[in-house]
Amino acid sequence: MTTHRIGLVVPSSNVTVETEVPALLARHRDAGFSFHSSRMRMHRVSPEELRAMNAQRERCVDELADAGVDALLYACLVALMAQGPGEHRRTEEAVTAQLDRRGQRPAVLSSAGALVEAVAALGARRIALVTPYLRPLAEQVVGYLRAEGIDVVDWAALEVGDNAAVGCIPGERVLGAARGLDLTGADALVVSACVQMPSLALVAPAEDEFGVPVLSAATAGAFALLRHLGLPTVLPGAGALLAADRPAPVAPLRS
C-alpha cells in the first residue's frame, strides 16, 4: 500500500483539521497517508489576524517542501475567502509557483477551493451553510461562494471570534443552527464551513435528518486531496460526497 505525504498549512490555534482529515483518510481502502503540518500564528478570527496569518504562508510552504509532500492543503477557509473573490486560485497558483522553483510539483489545494470543488462535484447549485464566524466574516464567505456561482439560500453565523473556542463548539449547537435554516430548494447543506469547527460526527446524522447531501470543510478537503492524488474518492460513513468515486476532470497538460 502506497503512503502519501500530506502537508497541511494550519492556523496555530487550530486543533481540528489535523484530527478530522486524518480520521477521514484512514478509512481509505487503497492507500495510506502521513500528515505533516506547518503553523501560522492566529488566535482571533478577525480581518487583521487573518491578513497577518496569510503573510506567513511562504515560510510554511518552504517548511513543507523540506518534507517532500505529495499534496499540500492550505487549511483555513475564511483566511482566503475574506480576501475577496477568487483568492483561492491566486493563493494556489502562488504556492504552486513557489514549489515549482524548488523543483517540486505536489498537488496544491486550499480548504476554500476544496469546498467550491466539492459543491460542484455534487452537482449542487443551491446550498445552505453553518459557519462559526462573526457575522461580517460570515457574510464575506457567503459572498465568496455566490461569486463562484453557488446560490446560498440560507446561512447561520454562530458568532464565535476566538479560534480556540471554535474548536470546542458542541455538535448539538451546530445541528441546532442547521435546524433553523430554510432548506427549501437547497441541493446540499454545508454543516461546517470551517476546518476548525468539528463536523465529522455530524455529517451522516445530518444527512439522515435533513434528507439532502451534507458536507463540511473537512469532508471537502479530504475529497479534494483524494481526487487530486488520483485516488478513489470513496470513504465510508462520510456522506454523499464521499460515497462514490468522482474522478477529477482531465486538466490540460502544462507546457
Q: Give the topology string: H per helix, E per strand.
A: EHEHHEHHEHEHEHHEHEH
Q: Could you say which structural class the secondary elements and strand pairing correspond to?
A: alpha/beta
Distance between the termini: 32 Å
How many domains? The number is 2
What is this structure's SSE topology?
Blueprint (H helix, E strand, L loop, with lengths): L2 E9 L5 H9 L6 E9 L6 H8 L2 H10 L4 E4 L2 H5 L5 H14 L6 E4 H11 L4 E6 L3 H13 L3 E7 L5 H4 L4 H9 L8 E5 L10 H8 L3 E3 H12 L27
Parallel strand pairs: 1-2, 1-3, 3-4, 5-6, 5-7, 7-8
Helix pairs in contact: 1-11, 6-11
General description of the model:
The chain is α/β, with parallel strands linked by helices. The protein has eleven helices and eight strands. It has a four-stranded parallel β-sheet with strand order 2-1-3-4, with helices on both faces. The protein has a four-stranded parallel β-sheet with strand order 6-5-7-8, with helices on both faces. The radius of gyration is 17 Å and the shape is globular. It starts with a strand and ends in a 27-residue tail after the last helix. The model has no long low-confidence stretch (mean pLDDT 95).
